């Protein structure tokens, strides 16, 4: 969806996380690989016309990762230019609850990584601040 007044592309996504299955008290963050751009990012996508941003974020997580999740706090909004148009992506923290990944045309791989490894794997530096914001929220909870 786009904001007609500003021509801004409106999108939403989540920093999807889970408790580490290794019992080490840590967490893992899910990143998606998009073959079209050959990049690693948080699950996100354009909103449908009239779609609530949180509903769109949860839809995109399910579509791209196959995982259901429980949304948490709102994280910083990202603003950047994509394909010559301004884009605004609203993010939430979201804890994975169930599901399994199936590769598709839009996303061909996902990985679950420690926060440090996820920061290093992300293609866009702006996405790293979202991990920092998630960790700050989880440590203050």
Short synopsis of the structure:
The protein has helices at residues 53-65, 115-121, 128-140, and strands spanning 2-3, 8-19, 27-34, 39-41, 44-46, 67-82, 85-99, 109-113. By secondary structure, it is of the alpha+beta class.
Question: Key features?
Answer:
141 residues, alpha+beta, Nucleoside Triphosphate Pyrophosphohydrolase, eight-stranded mixed beta sheet, 3 helices, 23% helix, 45% strand, globular
Give a structural overview:
The protein is 23% helix and 45% strand. It has 141 residues and is an alpha+beta fold. The chain has a single domain (2-140), classed as Nucleoside Triphosphate Pyrophosphohydrolase (Alpha-Beta Complex), CATH 3.90.79. Strands 1, 2, 3, 4, 5, 6, 7 and 8 form an 8-stranded mixed beta sheet that branches. The N and C termini lie far apart (33 Å). The model has no long low-confidence stretch (mean pLDDT 94).
The share of residues in extended strands comes to over 45%
Question: What Rg do the Cα atoms give?
Answer: 14 Å
CATH class: Alpha Beta
Low-confidence stretches: none
What is the third-level CATH name, the topology? Nucleoside Triphosphate Pyrophosphohydrolase
Second CATH tier, the architecture? Alpha-Beta Complex
What is the count of structural domains? 1
Helix content: 10-25%
Encode the helix/strand succession as letters: EEEEEHEEEHH
SSE inventory with pairings:
Layout (H helix, E strand, L loop, with lengths): L1 E2 L4 E12 L7 E8 L4 E3 L2 E3 L6 H13 L1 E16 L2 E15 L9 E5 L1 H7 L6 H13 L1
Parallel strand pairs: 2-7
Antiparallel strand pairs: 1-2, 2-3, 2-5, 3-4, 3-8, 6-7
């Amino acid at each position: 969806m786009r904001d007609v007044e500003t021509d801004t592309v409106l999108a939403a996504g989540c920093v999807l996380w889970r408790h580490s299955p290794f019992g080490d008290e840590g967490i893992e963050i899910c990143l998606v690989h998009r073959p079209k751009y050959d990049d690693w990012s948080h699950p996100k996508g354009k909103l449908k016309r009239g779609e609530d941003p949180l509903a769109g974020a949860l839809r995109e997580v399910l579509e791209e990762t196959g995982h259901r999740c429980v949304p948490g706090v709102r994280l910083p909004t990202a603003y950047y230019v994509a394909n010559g148009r301004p884009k605004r992506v609203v993010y939430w923290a979201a804890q994975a609850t169930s599901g399994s990944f199936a590769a598709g045309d839009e996303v061909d791989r996902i990985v679950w990584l420690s926060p440090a490894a996820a920061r290093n794997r992300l293609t866009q530096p702006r996405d790293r601040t979202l991990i920092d914001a998630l960790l700050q929220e989880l440590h203050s909870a």
